Amino acid sequence: MLEYIGKYYDQIFTMLVDHCKLVFVSILISFVLAFALSIVARRFKAMSGVLLALFIGVYCIPSLALFAFLIPFFGLGQPTAILALVLYNQVLLIRSILAAFKSVPSSVSEAAKGMGIGFLNGLRKVELPLALPAILGGLRVATISTSGIVTVAALINAGGLGVLLFDGIRTNNFDKIWLGVILVCSFTLLLNWGLSVLEKRSLRIARGER
Amino acid sequence: MANEFMIQFENVSKQYKNSQNPAVKNLSVGILPGEFITILGGSGSGKTTVLKMINRIIEPSGGTIFFKGQDIMTLEPDKLRREIGYVIQQSGLFPHMTVEDNIALLPDCLKQDRKKTRERVRELLRLVRLEPGQYKDRYPRQLSGGQQQRVSIARALVADPDVMLMDEPFGAIDALIRIELQEELKDIHKQFGKTILFVTHDVHEAMRLGTRVMVMKEGVLQQFDTPANVLLNKENQYVADIVGNRGEIQRLLMLNARDLAKPYAPGDQGPQIEIDAEMEQAFDLFMSDKNVDKIILVENAKPVLTLSRDDILIKR
Ligand SMILES: Nc1ncnc2c1ncn2[C@@H]1O[C@H](COP(=O)(O)OP(=O)(O)O)[C@@H](O)[C@H]1O
Ligand SMILES: [Mg+2]
């Protein structure tokens, strides 16, 4: 395995960078979209059921099939992969963001509302800081799941560490497979650790234990 | 005509969705500036709903509410809320903010001068008897229940609102501290002349604090009158029930001395007590000295009211 790494380290490095890029970009877009949809769903309660049903439906589609649906419109490559990952993440993220806001004690959000500081100030200064730990918890789960699913995207020429896995399977090269697994797992665990540090810190802030 | 009232309900009803009976039925009352209204009733009688309709946390399903003569539905909700302080039982303090930041949130959101706001916070903390230096940097979890409610009151006062809505603010506070807080709230009311609507299910509290008491049952206003009239001329069976199986004297003792007093007339003579003394104190004076016929209630050392032995029917 070391021999292989020595020989192809620049290619492996590119795959790792692609993997990171895919994960970061799709998580970023997923989160922004899910957050916006959740805020809308909070203001218009009827929306939340519709959104969740829709994205649970999406979540049920196997990833290969979803790629197959999207390729005619977006072609092979990273955009299709990112779009698919964003769609998958919505149900996880919207659910956890809505649950996070629900976990803010109603007395607290009502006190903010009753003061007359407005919807946005209430959200930014009161509800968001208190919901943040649970939101980050959901983000962590979505990130871990994305980092796993993203390997499948190698099938549609999106690059990333999945390439190593598929090459390994095709050529029956277990070194490649192991290397792929080790890199994907280490990367995922690193993200998991980073996000859980943020989560704990946000929890301390929410409790007033700074 | 409506303009003399601070708050006026005109045939206001509230029917919640998925609920059989209306939470509030055809409520019509007018509240004058400076009144201290206590709203008394059992659990589920619609007290909280009445309160929350005033600051538009809940929208009425019928009727009109006027704030200083204006239909509240024509006002911008946040502007209206800034003129109404709101205090709830669970304090609703923001756990991630210090005491100072909790109180300063509204002025900070309105981008008011920070230095002035900090000074205002200190002034308010002193008003609710918390030493600013000691408490302003604490988080809510580092305060006792009573202290949290003090901060909550200070926070509600920050924009100097004309009206305070208080929903069982002392409901979870133990008896001794509760009496202390009640006294302080009375002082604040006297000092600033705010119009206060105060929800409670504690008869004693309602009588002690209220200048008038609204008695509610199942969304219907049963009686709206002074504590003395609610206690002593019970209009209907429900009021009698909620006031309890108490004897005449026990009910009398729930009142303040002023509740049964008459305006002071020159020539009235007798021992003096403070204007907001409790009936108990007057009672003791009458009981301990048979020759006392009248007690003079003084405010700032000036006689204002006279309470006669006959007014509280104590036989010699
Ligand atoms: N959000 C709500 N949805 C449906 N019913 C409610 C809601 N809030 C209160 N109610 C009902 O309205 C009635 C009055 O409630 P409330 O005003 O909270 O009474 P109180 O404050 O006197 O205990 C109760 O029967 C209660 O169950
Ligand atoms: Mg209530």
Automatic annotation (TrEMBL), chain A:
Q: Name one Pfam family in it.
A: BPD_transp_1
Under InterPro entries, the record lists:
ABC_transp_perm/SBD (IPR051204), MetI-like (IPR000515), MetI-like_sf (IPR035906)
Query: Which residue intervals define the domain ABC transmembrane type-1 in the entry?
Result: 16-195
Record carries keyword Electron transport? no
| Superkingdom, natural source | Bacteria
Task: Give the subcellular location.
Answer: Cell membrane; Membrane
What are the BP-aspect GO terms?
A: glycine betaine transport; transmembrane transport
Sorted alphabetically, which Gene3D superfamilies does this protein's record hold? Answer: MetI-like
> GO cellular-component terms in the record?
plasma membrane
Q: Note the topology in the membrane.
A: Multi-pass membrane protein
Per the record, the similarity remark reads: Belongs to the binding-protein-dependent transport system permease family.
This chain belongs to the protein called ABC transporter permease
Q: Which organism is it from?
A: Cohnella pontilimi
